[in-house]
């Protein structure tokens, strides 16, 4: 039997559940998830192998209005994938009607010639009889190849989605070895896990002011412990104060929760050495962005 393969971009505004779907498709947590918008900054690639196909998913940052340099970077990342993929999954959520950002994304889709599947996520949050009229209405907006309602959280509808993707993929090579589920280095995922904890534990502008850099990652000789030194970069001294917390309590919490997830990921004990450093206004500075890994 010939293998099908190809790249599939997941686009949609922030918070609709793109990263949750990616993790669900792969059965592993590689993308960071948060109830706060704009969590995913870099493009994340996840590989799913089925008996008949290799599906390579790109979880892109949400598309939104460009304001800061970081936002411009994120929009570029999201639409850049259009030229590199065989299928686009455009995700919206069932409970919120289409907003301006969705309409903006639909506009950007009018330029593409590849199939677009509309994925309506979070159907666990709505009444089922609301779904058919909604699908009918949405079908008038764009010539979607398919419209698939799912719950990325519960998994409902996801098998159907995988089947439909399989139907649309062309025959192609195996791009990645079977055991590989992402092209991201472990270091990157570790940094993302730490960033996720900061997202969960802090509020207001702090989560958006954080970049995590792994400065050291090594196995300690003659032990089964992996030593990781990570630096959390913030933009202001006040943010550093918040992240360290009273008697260092906040940083301890971030460290404890991160270590647990990193140990699960690596299947090993971990010593996590966590630091906070002020890098003034890094998100507005192109050079600093590059240094912190947002190329
Ligand atoms: P992204 O910004 O599009 O990547 O969205 P995330 O995957 O980070 O998810 C945003 C929020 O929506 C998180 O709090 C998720 O737990 C939640 N979420 C994602 N999928 C579902 C779903 O199917 N049902 C419900 N109820 N919540 C979901
Ligand atoms: Mg995301």
From the coordinates shown, what is the CATH architecture of the largest domain?
3-Layer(aba) Sandwich
Largest sheet: 6 strands, mixed
Instruction: Assign an overall shape.
Output: globular
- The count of β-strands is 9
Which radius of gyration do the C-alpha atoms yield? 20 Å
- Alpha-carbon distance between the termini? 40 Å
Question: Helix amount, in percent?
Answer: 25-40%
Strand content: 15-25%
User: Helices and strands: which structural class?
Assistant: alpha/beta
Could you name the CATH homologous superfamily of the largest domain? P-loop containing nucleotide triphosphate hydrolases
Q: Enumerate how many helices there are, as a single number.
A: 9
Within the largest sheet, what's the order of strands? 2-3-1-4-5-6
Average pLDDT, to the nearest integer? 85
What count of domains describes the coordinates?
2
Which features does this protein show?
single chain; 295 residues; alpha/beta; Rossmann fold; GMP Synthetase, Chain A, domain 3; three-stranded mixed beta sheet; 34% helix; globular; binds magnesium ion
